[in-house]
Amino acid sequence: MKPKVFLINNYSMERAYSLWEKGISGSHHVWGKVELDQRGKVEMTVFPHEKYKILNKIGRLFGIGHLDQQIRILLNVNKFDILYSPYSKSNTKLLLFLKAIGLFRKPIVVTIHQPFWMGRNENWFFRLYARQYILNYTASIFLSKPLLEKTVDLLEIPKKAYKDKFSLAQWGPDMTYYERYYIKRNSFEDCDFFISAGHTDRDFETLIEAFRGLDYKLKIFCTPKTIPKTVDIPPNVEVDWEVTLSYDLVPYYQKSIAILIPLKYPKSKEGCQGMTSLQDVVTFSKPVIMTRNPCLNLDIEEEGIGYWVDMYDVNSWREKLRILKENRDIWLEMSDKSQSTFKNKFNSEVFATHLESVLLSVYNKDNNRP
Prior knowledge:
Elements: E1 4-7, H1 13-21, H2 33-39, E2 43-46, H3 53-61, H4 67-75, E3 82-85, H5 93-100, E4 108-112, H6 124-135, E5 139-142, H7 145-154, H8 159-162, E6 166-168, H9 177-182, E7 193-197, H10 204-211, E8 218-221, E9 237-240, H11 246-254, E10 256-261, H12 275-283, E11 288-291, H13 300-303, E12 306-309, H14 314-326, H15 328-344, H16 348-366
Parallel strand pairs: 1-2, 1-3, 3-4, 4-5, 5-6, 7-8, 7-10, 8-9, 10-11, 11-12
Helix pairs in contact: 10-14
């Protein structure tokens, strides 16, 4: 028999799946379901995200996010074998508590891409709490080796406690994008601006300063909540907060010289910031300039697809921008390596292969199968 898996998240997976079905979004935003459906060894069902909003309002009074979803999971406990939650901390709190006291026995598989209990890990009580919290998951798939090592170190987790629970996988873009966009890759001469899109921990202010006085164009795509605070935006910089769907950004990515990922965050919050934007880098075979983030699995300089800059370093941004704008051969080499990285090591099939292995292993152990 195939394991029956319920997929939940802290945002609507029904919407993410619908956008994929319509060709508007990639399969990687459904976190492996599409690829596993195609392989046929796991039966994965998208669980309805929200039904009774009043329950979520009640849950927030007690510090429990997505209470509605978790109660409905409990009411459907006999309809699945494994619960899979890519964004887990905010929508599994009640289930983990019940699991800890033996009232919820189903395996829970999660992905980890942000640090646990940011800024509190130095406190012994919170360290103990966070350690027990993460070990209560049946399996945790880390999307970054440095983050896995950092978690083990900060929470002082002994190897015997995590060796059968923690694993490492590379989350990457929809593999069908390879042929869809690579064959339509624009030439260097047809690319005439830089692009930066995103909303999590973005430092658009430093990026804008880097472009001030340069004869290069920059297009920033953000959300209404992440509009740059810069008052006097120079004429070579455009800011757009109305284009929000990744599908609508495609023509802009295709005509861009390079993708820029400026980040700012406290050390305690360091995780996989910028990971989603790196999907776009390899999808469109573009070079990248990015604020240094040691927690990412992909080292853009080692892969030869771009340059790191230090946080808030305006001069370093300007230096790297000039290199890519004025050196066609460097641009071509980085574009080719970006394409190769996508094809060989950074794609949805790589992630799905590991996820499938973890889910099958958890299912077999839970059912005492060899």
